Amino acid sequence: MQDLLNDILEEVKPLVGQGNVASYIPELAKVNPNQFGIAICDTQGNVTKAGDATTGFSIQSISKVFNLVLAYIYYGNSLWERVGCEPSGLPFNSLVQLEYENGIPRNPFINAGALVVSDMVHSRLISPHVALRDLIRKLSGNPYVLSDVDVAESEFEYRARNAAMSYLMKAFGNFHNDVEEVLHTYFMNCALRMSCVDLARATQFLANRGFCTITKSDVLTGDQTRQMNALLATSGLYDEAGSFAFKVGLPGKSGVGGGIIAVVPGRFSICVWSPALNKMGNSLAGVAALESLTRHIKWSVY
């Protein structure tokens, strides 16, 4: 596996730095685009890594996976009464479908859906961000995971579009808590800083039918894990989900910080990171690395 990751690193080096960092979040615009890391965690908890795999970065929308875990814990399948499980086919921050579909977001991985999930978790917990941070610390085995407050404040300053989604859903009765409070929590979650190694370990349960080797406990049931992986396959990369399925063929979730997590069910979880993004807002070198990986191992879920 180490030789494979080293080969992938050499293969994608010419792509590293191509594309653009997420400049609409001022703090992310400062990140050096010429970085690349990859890490794999197998179902026994063994980690293999290459490149900048221990460098921390802003996980952004990858946090939506863990927030959905919290919603599963507190709501079970009733959470699907407030958010759908269909691909959107639109950019991650689109408001278009909310108006036509009575404030019910298409899935929990677009921003509107993640905001509803955050609202649901907010209704059950006094400190929802602390709960999410502590969950991630346990799953990753890293007790030092923290949010970058500068990134969170930068995002909150430019919150208008996310606030518009939240208030629109509130008008339809699908948002119950104070919008500004939920947005603060949402951005603190997005601003969590982790490495490829951290994320590969924290998502290993998705490759292991919900069982986390690190905590030696079930995170989700087998059925919930199957549902999560299905959503990741159809909606995890927004309006590039179809292309990602075609090229890579794995459940995955991206973030505008340049990270992508992916799952080979029954075998291992993966995290790649390179900050420069393609036109769809996903890591350009990261997508190429995952395409190379599945080509080398000759495996996909399809």
Automatic annotation (TrEMBL):
<keyword id="KW-0007">Acetylation</keyword>
<feature type="binding site">
    <location>
        <position position="238"/>
    </location>
    <ligand>
        <name>substrate</name>
    </ligand>
</feature>
<dbReference type="Pfam" id="PF04960">
    <property type="entry name" value="Glutaminase"/>
</dbReference>
<protein>
    <recommendedName>
        <fullName>Glutaminase</fullName>
        <ecNumber>3.5.1.2</ecNumber>
    </recommendedName>
</protein>
<keyword id="KW-0378">Hydrolase</keyword>
<feature type="binding site">
    <location>
        <position position="111"/>
    </location>
    <ligand>
        <name>substrate</name>
    </ligand>
</feature>
<feature type="binding site">
    <location>
        <position position="186"/>
    </location>
    <ligand>
        <name>substrate</name>
    </ligand>
</feature>
<feature type="binding site">
    <location>
        <position position="155"/>
    </location>
    <ligand>
        <name>substrate</name>
    </ligand>
</feature>
<feature type="binding site">
    <location>
        <position position="256"/>
    </location>
    <ligand>
        <name>substrate</name>
    </ligand>
</feature>
<feature type="binding site">
    <location>
        <position position="162"/>
    </location>
    <ligand>
        <name>substrate</name>
    </ligand>
</feature>
<comment type="subunit">
    <text>Homotetramer.</text>
</comment>
<feature type="binding site">
    <location>
        <position position="61"/>
    </location>
    <ligand>
        <name>substrate</name>
    </ligand>
</feature>
<dbReference type="InterPro" id="IPR015868">
    <property type="entry name" value="Glutaminase"/>
</dbReference>
<dbReference type="InterPro" id="IPR012338">
    <property type="entry name" value="Beta-lactam/transpept-like"/>
</dbReference>
<dbReference type="GO" id="GO:0004359">
    <property type="term" value="F:glutaminase activity"/>
</dbReference>
<comment type="similarity">
    <text>Belongs to the glutaminase family.</text>
</comment>
